[in-house]
Every structure is written in structure tokens, then in C-alpha cells.
């Protein structure tokens, strides 16, 4: 029997994908067992639980499971790095069932410095699905810590983390900008206004316009219920402004979203206000990337499995 | 008897200054009775408490006491605005003792939009103490919400709020950047590194470098205990970068700090890394400004007082 159990193991969630020996995805499972909220029994119990009933197959995991606070710390691979290099740098942790779990290393951009864990696997998956983007492209991976990654000649050559999602959350929950006294309403127009304010903020940047959110509300020019969408627009717009200012994204070079549909849709609307048309996002890039890396590392038909 | 009771009444503190009829400051008192933490009995009780034993004198207050959540909301005066215009736009609230409290309006920069309350009075005081700055200067008022204000021909012509202090607090207390597991140490070198990173961040800006704080720590290149000072340097440096990018500050035009000594000292160190030499800060600018505005409004020898 051949195949792969691929694990996308982050801070707050764990997803498992079972592939057959030809790379066909046979089953997907998700549990809330991120590395900060493991079930009783820790990593071993989470792994046994999410793969219950599945055959003994090689196992490969990416994400925060390989971080300092994870199951085993995997060193970062410095840029530039491609799929072959990542596949050649897998680590191993031995599980209680006597079988190995292979771990994908993260990537490090020494120029930031900046680091990623998990997104490197999504990049590999996205490039396997869209080889036309391998020559030159920028990938946008929105989230708590959004990543903008530059690909040249099939390798990641630079990336940067923008703390958009986390900034939005802490500003809403803990700053004066969140003290609106109103339930948040869905307001696409306020989001667009925020994006435009970021776009038009010049070299000073949108963070120097954060307080205008409050001033607009005091002016009566922004409904308290629309403050969150305006703030979200300001922060998402700032990603595009900063990425264009920094050369992480270039007009004329393809840009591609990777991620969850609803969040990516906000980025597509923001991009449109920068006169950038983004295609629909690539979903399930992590699963595809794990398969690719397992193939690179020759795990799928590995004799190591039978030796266990 | 002539003189003035001047009140600097903010969100978290209340300060009272008693002037004689010649403008000599005779006594200063401070209480933790900002508008969000008033004593039992509210504004009336706070006023009676802090002026206890003082003679019946005209009273003038600036700051958040005139905000929507204050004692009485005072409309903002749009820029450009000078001391005479501010003095001519005072409002009044009648206290329980039958005497008036005059209130200074805030300022509004319609281009942000942006707003200030209290800092306009500090600007008036600073310009009275330093008339040589009235022709052309930029004032920097560091704080939870730092203000950078441009003065031309004795009037405030533009300003912007940078949420530096609040951003620092929410990032330290509620974001991954605060999760260092270490007690903060005083590290002037880490502060300087943060300032330099902001200065060198180009048009992308320091907010796009926030995550590098974490990456440097993971690298072992920044001690966990020094993360707060690095982050502080990044955010204070960003004020200078953005202000220079925006034309709020110009090399060759005097820049002057107003505020508390220790905080202003950090700004002087940051400025030095931008090759800007800042003179020592102006203290007690609010008290001086209140006296100036009271004089402008002819409150000090006012007959209104005797009519009460």
C-alpha cells in the first residue's frame, strides 16, 4: 500500500489529508488541535486521533509543528529556496506508534530578517498547480500574519510578513479605534474608502492615517458600525501600498492569492482599487505542497515505511 | 482680586494651576480625575476638590473635558487657527457653585481629517514662550496619541496624530510581539536599532518591519528582554520617517518637543539618528497656554466674575 498522510499543523488548527499512491486526495479531516490547543496526550494523541482508521502511511507535516514551541524545532532554510531544497531538508520526529513524522522546515529571508512556517509548503503547492507562475510572480497569503512572497525561476527569493490580521484584531479589541459603541456592520463602501485612504497616503503610509478613523467618526462622516470595515480597508490597502513601494509586488508581474475564499475576496476588492486585477485564489495549496515535497523526498514509496 | 484658575483636564488626569493677576504661577495641583475616572460627584466634585481653598477666580479648562464624552462638547475650530481665534471661541459651562468654567475648543485639520484637544493650548503656550518659533516650525508632542503640528506665521496650519503610544501598548500587551517570556530590560542600543530600522525602511515604512522584531528574537539577534525597546524605537522612528515623508517636518525648519522630560528624551535620541538635533522640551506648556488664552479672552480681569 502506498500513499501519504499530509498534515498542515498550525497554531490553532490541524488538518490531515490522505492521498493514495497516485496523488489523489482521498479524505480530508480537520481538528481544532493547533500546537497551542493540543488535546490531552499532546502531539501523539492529536496525530492518533486525526488519522484514526487510516492505513499506516508515510507522514509529512508542515507549519508551526516544526517551530520552537512545536513538536520538534526545525531550522529555517535561508532564501533563495525551491521545492527540491525544501524536500531535501525534511526533519524527522519519531511518534509513539514507532513510525516517523517528517517535518518541513520553514523559510528565512535574511534581509528582513523575516520567517515563515507552513506558507513555504503552500507556495510549493501553488507552483505545482500553476507552473506558469514559476518564472516570475508574487504570491499573497492573507491572514493573521500575511505573507507576500516573490518567486523567480521556481524559487522563493524574498518575502515579508505584514501583521495585518493581528493588528486589526488588537486595534479593534484594545484601542480607542475599537471603542465605537456600535455592533459592526458589513460595509463594503467603508472598506473601499479605507483602501483608498491607504493608497493615497503616499510615502507616509496608512499607519499615519489610523487616527483619521476616529476623526471621521467624530465628524459624522463614518458610521460607528462601519469603523471596522474602514479600518480593515486601511490595513489591507497598506499591504498593497507597502508591497508596491518595496518592490515585493510589481505592476506587470503576475500576483496570485493563496488562501480562504472570503478573506481573499477582500484582497481582490482592495487590489482593484490599485488597478490590479487578481485571479481567484488557489485553495488547498498546503495539501498539494505536502504531496510535492513528499515526492521530492521520495517518501511516498519509501522503504523506510516497511522497515518500521 | 484678580488671577486665573487654569485646568488641564485630560482623559486620565486633571491638573490645576493658580495664577495671580500678573501671570505668576502660584500653585500647581494634580489629581487622577481625568474624564474617564472622575470622583463621586463628577465634574463638579472634581473641580471643587482640586480648587479647595483657592479664591473665586475665573476658570479656564482645556483638553478632553470639552469632548463628546466630557463635561460639555465644544466644536472643533478648523485650521488654520491662531491664539486670538482660539481665545475668541471659548465656550462656557456653568458649575454648581454658580460660577462659569470656560472651555477651550479643540482643533481640526480637515485634510486628515484629524483632531486634537488640549494640544492646541500647549502650542499657544509654547509659542508665547518661544516667539522665535512662530514664523515657521514643527512641534512634536509625544504621547499615547503623538501630535506633529506645523506652525506658520503664528498659526497652526496642519497636524497629524500618530498613535505611537497606544500601538506600543496594544502590541506589547496583546500581540505575538509582546510574547517574549522575559521581563523588559532598559536597552538603549535596542531602541537605537529599532529607530534605524524605521529610518531605513524606505517608503514601505516601519509597520512593514514590525514582524522583524520577532524574527530577530528567533534568530537570537535580539534578546527577549530587549524586544520592548526595539519595538519602541521602531514606532518612534516611524514618526520621524513618516513626518519627513509627509512634509510635516522639514530639515532646516526648527522642530521643538513639548512634553514630559523622559519621553521627550527618547524622541531626542531618535531624532539624532535622523541627523536632527532637537533642543530640550518645553515643559508646562498647557499652563502657559491657558494663561495666554485667558488673556486673549479678557477673562483675567473680567467683570463677569464679579457679576456672579
TrEMBL record, chains A, B:
InterPro entries: DGOK, DGOK_C, DGOK_N. It comes from the Bacteria. This is 2-dehydro-3-deoxygalactonokinase. The lineage of its organism: Bacteria, Pseudomonadati, Pseudomonadota, Gammaproteobacteria, Lysobacterales.
